[in-house]
Design a protein that fits this description.
Oligomer: heterodimer
Structural class of chain B: mainly beta
Largest sheet of chain A: 6 strands, mixed
Distance between the termini of chain B: 36 Å
Number of strands of chain B: 11
Largest interface: A-B, 23 and 23 residues
Distance between the termini of chain A: 41 Å
Order of helices and strands of chain A: EEEEEEEEEEEE
Mean pLDDT of chain A: 90
Shape of chain B: globular
Helix content of chain B: under 10%
Largest sheet of chain B: 7 strands, mixed
Number of helices of chain B: 0
Low-confidence stretches of chain B: none
Low-confidence stretches of chain A: none
Strand content of chain B: over 45%
Strand content of chain A: over 45%
Radius of gyration of chain A: 14 Å
Mean pLDDT of chain B: 93
Structural class of chain A: mainly beta
């Protein structure tokens, strides 16, 4: 069975600084990987996902994540954060790729707090 | 186009009371999901419905029942509420299944069981 570990429960950072939110997954088979974001008092929204192809995936608001199969990681990065990026970020995994799967396994979340 | 809607937004129950959380989506999606979100535990899947007429248990189904009333609506019922069910509940939908497809979430229901 798959599992997801988000190593940091909270990440404080100043505006315009770079940030990395770490995510490691545990699976013996190939999987699909996602990052979802939850702004205060809202539901989750998809930020980006890796299904196949290029291991570097990008979102429309400047975040990127790189699938690293050897390290079983899918870390989320942004070179310069804004106050508006303050939110909780969830890494999620589904799979195995050989099956049709309808379910995601979510990590416990990382709260990104951006300070002015 | 409202996306995924949930009612009610807030609810307070006493132990042993019952209630139904309602969820509807207007995107003609096949799959629908119920999650609960607790501090430090992320989102955990309660039940899901891969298509109209089917439902399956997720990670934490005990104490809950669901009904996929039609393609649009997926309700979650607590027959006898317990304090351990105090949580924020999210409904979500996706077209081809959350495994590869984007899930769209509702705004959530904050439930407190006293």
């Amino acid at each position: 069975a798959q599992s997801v570990t988000q190593l940091d429960s909270q990440v404080p950072v100043f505006e315009e600084a770079p940030v990395e939110l770490r995510c490691n997954y545990s699976s013996s088979v190939s999987v699909y990987l996602f990052w979802y974001v939850q702004y205060p008092n809202q539901g989750l929204q998809l930020l980006l996902k890796y299904l196949s192809g290029s291991t570097l995936v990008e979102s429309i608001n400047g975040f990127e994540a790189e699938f690293n199969k050897s390290q079983t990681s899918f870390h989320l990065r942004k070179p310069s954060v804004h106050i508006s990026d303050t939110a909780e970020y969830f890494c999620a995994v589904s799979g195995p790729r050989s099956y049709n799967t309808d379910k995601l396994i979510f990590g416990t979340g990382t709260r990104l707090q951006v300070f002015p | 186009n409202a996306g995924v809607t949930q009612t009610p937004k807030f609810q307070v129950l006493k132990t042993g009371q019952s209630m139904t959380l309602q969820c509807a989506q207007d995107m003609n999606h096949n799959s629908m999901y119920w999650y609960r979100q607790d501090p430090g535990m992320g989102l955990r899947l309660i039940y899901y419905s891969a298509s109209e007429g089917t439902t399956d248990k997720g990670e934490v189904p005990n104490g809950y029942n669901v009904s996929r009333l039609n393609k649009r609506e997926f309700s979650l019922r607590l027959e006898s509420a317990a304090p351990s069910q105090t949580s924020v509940y999210f409904c979500a939908s996706s077209d081809k299944g959350a495994g590869t497809d984007t899930q769209y979430f509702g705004p959530g229901t904050r439930l407190t069981v006293l």
